[in-house]
Fold:
Amino acid sequence: MPPLNALHSASDDPNAAPTDTIDVVDVAVIGAGPAGLMAAEVLSAAGWRVDVYDAMPSVGRKFLMAGKGGMNLTHSESAEPFVARYGKRAGAVGQWLRRFSADDVRSWSHRLGVDTFVGTSGRVFPVDMKAAPLLRAWLSRLRATGVRLHVRHRWLGWDENAAAGPNHLRFATPSGERQVRAKAVVLTLGGASWPQLGSDAAWVPSLREHGVSVAPLIPANAGFEADWTPHMRERFAGHPVKSVTMTLPDGTTRQGEFVISEHGIEGSLVYAMCAPIRDAIRSSGSAQVYLDLLPDWSAERVAGEVARPRGSRSMASHLQSRLGIAGVKAALLRECLSRETFNDPASLAVGIKRLPLTLLRVRPIAEVISSAGGVSLESLDAHLMVKALPGVFCAGEMLDWEAPTGGYLLTACFASACVAGDGAAAYLEAHR
Structure:
């Protein structure tokens, strides 16, 4: 089996001499992440010659990085709650998912020879939990259908002096600038998270200059900063906080777990609540969330246990023996409640069930899992073609939508790529 970066054309040779010729291709897919490779698969299956271009030395780098902790492909929950995970963009993403659903993701993986299973959380994984075997099988199949991948090709935008319109492309390569004239273009350039893996948002100025509306790229699935004391930061960074609920001021509540970080909090529960917390910080300068440290206990039971006589025991020992609160949960109580509140049984009981935690800042976009913002869906038609640039389609994370972790991100990237691939195939057929 060839290495992951072996699918390329002769033009990728860094010692090759620059050429003044213009390559003519059926369709250029720019970006070799999951969305780009899926668009290439759809177009190749429709009978078109596909060339995929990527700035990095190898393909699917973010895909591989995301799979290091276990390749979460999609989620097994039913369609209605699945679609609701996309928040304000649920209507649009729901249409994409009609084309390629969570079940289709699993079938696609199985056709590549990689079986899947559903974990206890409902998330879907390859049986070996790894991304690399899946990517290898995928690249092998793409290569067999004639898809050509050109690595180390950084897209520079369009040739403004060409009469060929928006499909006359410029690339920086190790051997100099290369020009490509494509009959159709699919852009799958990613957002702005993990720029070291290729998603650096360098495409934003080019699209804006051509009249495409691009919403500012902002962190999604991000951690948040809290004003921890040195003790909390040094003693408990990295500790999980399990089986809690988080409630926003508007009453939105989710149960799960998160992790104390050096800077604040992160983890699956935080990511699920990221958008409203982020938006509250943007509008008010900070956000307050409320933690229920014992969600399976009633407020009355907590109050009764806290109020029991403790004799000569400290309050910390009392909480551990009567309520099982110790370690990081006990530290959170000390961190977020005043000394007077902590030592008053009635007030402490309230704090255990509704502990206020102030979040000050979202973590920088370069280190978060994904980004929100991007190409406005209103700038695109139903086939994800840019209205201002006929023949140019967009898909994946560069579009203006977001979702929590759990397989929702990857599924929507695949689904949007299928829609854009179908649209590009129809465009090519109409302009044959």
Summary: The longest strand covers residues 176-187.
